[in-house]
Design goal:
The structure is a single chain. This protein is of the alpha+beta class. The chain has 8 helices and 9 strands. The protein folds into 3 domains: 61 residues, no CATH class; 119 residues, Tetrahydropterin Synthase, Chain A, CATH 3.30.479.30; 65 residues, no CATH class. The strands form 3 sheets. Strands 6, 7, 8 and 9 form a 4-stranded antiparallel beta sheet that branches. It is rod-shaped, with a radius of gyration of 57 Å. It starts with a helix and ends in a 23-residue tail after the last helix. The relative contact order is 0.07.
C-alpha cells in the first residue's frame, strides 16, 4: 500500500524534472519565455539547461546560415533597359533575444528581409547601366577563342566601372544596418539570374541568331577557300605527275619505236623486193574493200603487183577485167 502511494508522487516528480530540462545542440540557440515574455539571456552554447516547468517555454532558433530567396522583379536600369532580376541571400541570427522580441520567428525574419533587401536591389540596379549588373570587369570575352570575329554592335554598352560583385556588396552594406535591430546578420547577397523582359528578349534573340549566322557564314567561306586551295594543289600535283608519266611513256615509246625500226630495217634489207611487196599489200588492204572502185592506168605503179596477178587469172575469173575481141586493152581500161 505504501509503495503505491509513493509511485504517484515519484511520477509527478519525474514529469516536473522532464519539463524543467532542455538541451541545446551546436546548431541551435534558445530563448526562454515566461507567459510570452523573454526571461534571462539567450542560450547560445550547446549543453543541458533548466527552466521552470509548465510556466516557462524554450524557443529554439537556428544558429547556422539560413537562405533567403527573393521574388523575381522587373527593374529598369540607368540606360532604360527593363530586366528581370532574381536575387538570393544568406543570413543568420546573431542575437536570438532581439530577434525574438522584434520578429518572433524565422517567418517574420524572412518578411523583414523581403522589405529591406528587395528595395535595396532595385535601387542599385536602377542606378547603374545594364553592363554594370552583367559583368565584373572589362576583360575580353573568349567565347570564340582562336577565331577572328569582328561584329559591329548597333550601340556600345560602355565600360565597366563598378561591376556586378561590387554592386551586390553595396546592396549588402546598405541592408545590413537596417537588419541589426532585428538581431540578423546579412552574410551575403548575390544575383541569381538576370533576363530581359519578353518584349526585349525577342529582339535580342533575333540579333543573336543573326550574329551567329554571320559567324557561321564566315567559317563556311573560310572553309570553301581552304577547300579550293587544297583542290588547286591537288590538281597541280596531278598534272605534274601526269606530265612526268607522259614524258616517261613517250620516251619509252620512242625508244621502242627506234628499236623496232632498226629490227624492221635489218630484216627488210635482206630482201628489199619482199619488203616492197608487203608494204604494197598493206596499202591495198587499207585503200580498198569489197565496195571500192578505182579507175587507174594499167601502167600505174599502184598496180605493179596486182597487174601480174590479173594477167595470169584473167582467163579464169570473169568480171575482173573485160576486153573487146580483136581490140587490145587500152591504157584507160576500167578495173574493178
Amino acid at each position: 500500500m505504501k509503495s503505491k502511494v509513493l509511485i504517484f508522487p515519484l511520477i509527478i516528480l519525474l514529469f516536473i524534472l522532464y519539463q524543467g530540462m532542455y538541451t541545446v545542440d551546436e546548431t541551435q540557440q534558445v530563448v526562454v519565455t515566461q507567459f510570452g515574455k523573454a526571461v534571462g539571456k539567450a542560450k547560445t552554447k550547446a549543453g543541458l539547461y533548466f527552466k521552470i516547468p509548465i510556466v516557462q517555454q524554450a524557443n529554439y532558433f537556428p544558429k547556422n546560415l539560413l537562405e533567403w530567396d527573393g521574388d523575381p522583379g522587373q527593374v529598369p536600369t540607368l540606360d532604360k533597359t527593363f530586366i528581370w532580376v532574381d536575387t538570393f541571400a544568406r543570413w543568420k541570427i546573431i542575437d536570438p533575444l532581439k530577434f525574438f522580441q522584434t520578429v518572433n520567428n524565422v517567418t517574420g525574419g524572412m518578411a523583414r528581409l523581403d522589405d529591406i533587401i528587395g528595395p535595396a536591389v532595385r535601387n542599385f540596379i536602377s542606378a547603374y547601366p545594364l553592363i554594370e549588373t552583367v559583368r565584373n570587369s572589362n576583360r575580353e570575352l573568349d567565347t570564340f577563342e582562336g577565331a577572328i570575329i569582328h561584329i559591329q554592335e548597333d550601340k556600345s554598352l560602355g565600360e565597366v566601372r563598378l561591376g556586378r560583385e561590387k554592386i551586390t556588396d553595396a546592396i549588402r552594406a546598405q541592408a545590413q544596418p537596417k537588419l541589426e535591430k532585428f538581431g540578423i546578420k546579412l552574410v551575403d547577397v548575390k544575383i541569381k539570374r538576370l533576363n530581359y523582359v519578353e518584349e526585349v528578349r525577342k529582339s535580342v534573340y533575333s540579333r543573336m541568331i543573326a550574329e551567329r549566322k554571320q559567324i557561321a557564314e564566315k567559317f563556311r567561306s573560310e572553309g570553301k577557300g581552304e577547300a579550293r586551295k587544297i583542290e588547286g594543289n591537288m590538281e597541280k600535283e596531278l598534272k605534274k605527275i601526269t606530265s612526268e608519266a607522259y614524258k616517261k611513256a613517250q620516251g619509252l615509246k620512242g625508244k621502242a619505236d627506234a628499236e623496232a625500226t632498226l629490227i624492221y630495217a635489218a630484216a627488210y634489207n635482206k630482201d628489199p623486193e619482199f619488203y616492197s611487196f608487203l608494204k604494197t599489200l598493206e596499202v591495198y588492204a587499207q585503200a580498198m574493200d569489197s565496195k571500192s572502185t578505182l579507175v587507174l592506168s594499167t601502167d600505174s605503179e599502184f598496180l605493179k603487183y596486182l597487174k601480174g596477178i590479173l594477167t595470169e587469172t584473167e582467163r579464169d575469173v570473169s568480171g575482173i577485167a573485160t576486153a573487146r575481141p580483136g581490140e587490145p586493152a587500152g591504157p584507160d581500161e576500167a578495173v574493178k
